[in-house]
Design goal:
The complex is a heterodimer of chains A (about 400) and B (about 140). By secondary structure, chain A is mainly alpha-helical. Chain A has one domain. Chain A is about 55% helix and about 0% strand. Chain A contains 14 helices and 2 strands; from the N terminus they run H-H-H-H-H-H-H-H-H-E-H-H-H-H-H-E. Chain A has helices at about 15-35, 35-60, 65-95, 120-130, 160-170, 175-180, 185-190, 195-220, 225-255, 270-280, 290-295, 300-305, 315-330, 340-350, and strands spanning about 260, 395. A two-stranded antiparallel ribbon of chain A has the order 1-2. In chain A, helix 2 (about 35-60) packs antiparallel against helix 3 (about 65-95), helix 8 packs across helix 9 (about 225-255) and helix 9 crosses helix 14. In chain B, the strands form 2 sheets. In chain B, strands 1-2-5 form a 3-stranded antiparallel β-sheet. In chain B, strands 3-4 form a two-stranded antiparallel ribbon. Chain B has helices at about 25-35, 55-60, 70-75, and strands at about 45-50, 95-100, 105, 120, 125-130. The termini of chain B are far apart. Chain B has one domain. Chain B is of the alpha+beta class and about 140 residues long. The chains are: A mainly alpha (about 400), B alpha+beta (about 140). At the A-B interface, helix 1, helix 4, helix 8 and helix 10 of A face helix 1 and strand 3 of B. The complex binds zinc ion. Zinc ion (ZN) binds near residues 39, 67 and 70 of chain B.
Chain lengths: ~400, ~140
């Protein structure tokens, strides 16, 4: 099925799709032209707040033998890590702030406070996930290689354990992400280029040593007699960050209404078609300004996927223009409160732990006939040439 | 998996298919993974672009971002005699190298004659023009 056959917008003629594309181009151009010192002040303020919180947390933990200080320190550090990973690191590494010409706040120099090396994140996230968004067999973020998230993915008895793997993935999220680009399945099948594997393992080793050294050796020892308590508080801060970032990320593409696509070809997708796929594959959530900042503005996942390299502080403004456009063209704009969006993602995880015959497809699902093989594609296997027989097949998640 | 095992500069730029022009898939990979179009390693700051004077005027480069040193290597080794390998079917009037802190990655619309994506530097730091050396 071609992208033009996806039922959510079969009512759009190719001209209308291109017209919608032009309207989105205009939004992009307006934001690019209006980026200014207020935006720069925003990200600098975020970095300042984040650093003060981290420092305050680390200082508070000198008293970590005292329960209230233990929890206050862990909370401040947890919030600092969330801010650093979500609103700062993720967005800086997308190049959202490169235009400022600030040597420190740049996609090529930023390394974030989590175990995954920045270079591997830029490959697995910026490229594979953002280019092949929700394309089964290509976007490795669909279930992170552990969870079955779409009915088209072949069921295996291993999937019965999904509720447990999900809990483990959530609590150990930073380590799951750290190993994400390594692609353990290809190593197991002996298909991995040894040179690449060596390079990646070395990067991960360096990063893990630094993260573990910082949170479980250096800062704890600095607090002297409180070392053990400080290490525990740091673990709590990391756990908080893991659970939070896992939840926000799972709300981006797995709530009901976010479509999955099954391959063929995307290289010749026009800009307008690319915009459409990004909009249909993503889901927003609603909430306060603070909630959005703590989520790295990924509550505006649709806007982020349309314009991954525009400054995150502008996504709210962009959404005020994208939503009416969706209404005008009759394109779904999936959103809802955070708890509902996560609830739907969680329901899919539970439901798809069972074979398809035991569960009912959701409203958006089409037939269960298409099955996508397990395992990942290598970069060299990603599609290059357009075939005349079509591009996308749309299947909704369960 | 990262399709970038090499550690130095090869016979061909990473993003190139030689006489066939640019490898579109790798151009996108360079753009989004923020790796160099010549050596495939992570970019540095500033980012360099190599192209024709005309591309500079339109602020739309076809060859993906590179390291500054890799851009110089491209201008020296491929530009004079093998413009196709840098995405130019014929030798341009002049070659340029610009450095910038950031860039926009622009996919093409259906009505574009040339459907290759382009790069628009958005914070240019330095600009170097060289007359094209024509090899006969
Ligand atoms: Zn290079």
């Amino acid at each position: 099925m071609a992208i033009a056959d996806v039922k959510e917008y079969t009512h759009l003629s190719p001209e209308e799709v291109e017209e919608l594309g032009r309207e989105l181009d205009q939004i992009r151009a307006d934001i690019e032209e209006s980026r200014n010192s207020d935006d720069a002040a925003y990200i600098n303020r975020m970095i300042t707040i984040q650093r003060r919180l981290a420092t305050a947390g680390r200082i508070t933990l000198f008293a970590s033998k005292w329960k209230p200080a233990f929890f206050a320190g862990a909370a401040m550090l947890g919030v600092a890590k969330i801010l650093e990973n979500m609103e700062i690191g993720h967005n800086v590494m997308h190049g959202q702030w490169d235009w400022m010409n600030d040597p420190e706040i740049h996609s090529s120099t930023w390394d974030w406070d989590t175990a995954q090396p920045a270079e591997q994140w830029k490959h697995s996230h910026n490229y594979v996930h953002h280019q092949f968004t929700n394309v089964l067999g290509h976007d490795n973020d669909i279930g992170y290689g552990i969870l079955r998230m779409a009915r088209e993915q072949k069921w295996n008895v291993f999937n019965l354990g999904q509720p447990i793997y999900n809990a483990l993935l959530a609590s150990l999220f930073q380590w799951g992400v750290a190993l994400h680009d390594l692609d353990i399945e290809s190593i197991r099948k002996m298909e991995k280029d040894p040179e690449v594997m060596k390079k990646q393992l070395k990067q991960i080793g360096v990063k893990v040593r630094r993260q573990v050294g910082k949170d479980y050796i250096f800062f704890p020892l600095l607090t002297g007699p409180a070392a053990i308590q400080t290490a525990k508080a740091n673990a709590l801060a990391n756990l908080t960050r893991n659970l939070w970032s896992y939840m926000i990320i799972f709300c981006g593409h797995f709530p009901d209404g976010a479509l999955h696509f099954s391959e063929e070809e995307i290289e010749d997708e026009t800009r307008a078609e690319w915009y459409l796929r990004q909009m249909l594959g993503s889901a927003n959530f609603t909430g306060s300004r603070t909630l959005h900042i703590m989520s790295g503005n990924l509550g505006y996942q649709i806007e982020h996927h349309l314009f991954p390299d525009l400054p995150s502080n502008r996504y709210e403004e962009i959404s005020n223009r994208v939503r009416p456009l969706c209404e005008k063209y009759g394109v779904p704009y999936t959103t809802g409160p955070l708890h509902r969006q996560y609830g739907q993602a969680l329901r899919t995880i539970m439901k798809l732990s069972l074979p398809n015959k035991f569960t009912k497809p959701a409203r958006h699902d089409s037939a269960d006939s298409v099955e996508v093989p397990r395992g990942r594609k290598k970069d060299s296997e990603r599609p290059t040439r357009r075939t005349e027989t079509g591009t996308w097949t749309s299947r909704a998640s369960a | 998996m990262i399709d970038q095992p090499r550690t130095g500069i090869g016979e061909l730029p990473f993003a190139s298919m030689g006489d066939l022009g640019l490898d579109k898939k790798r151009v996108t990979q360079c753009a989004l993974s923020r790796i160099c179009g010549v050596c495939a390693q992570s970019l540095d700051r500033p980012v360099a672009f190599v192209g024709s004077g005309e591309e500079l005027e339109r602020n739309a480069f076809h060859f993906p971002p590179t390291h500054r040193a890799c851009a110089e290597h491209a201008l020296e080794h491929w530009a004079p005699s093998w413009s196709a390998s840098l995405g130019h079917p014929s030798q341009p009037e002049s070659w340029v190298m610009v450095t910038t802190s950031g860039f926009e990655f622009v996919r093409q619309n259906a009505d574009a004659a040339d459907r290759r994506p382009v790069f628009s530097p958005n914070s240019i730091l330095e600009e170097k023009r060289t007359p094209a050396l024509r090899s006969t």
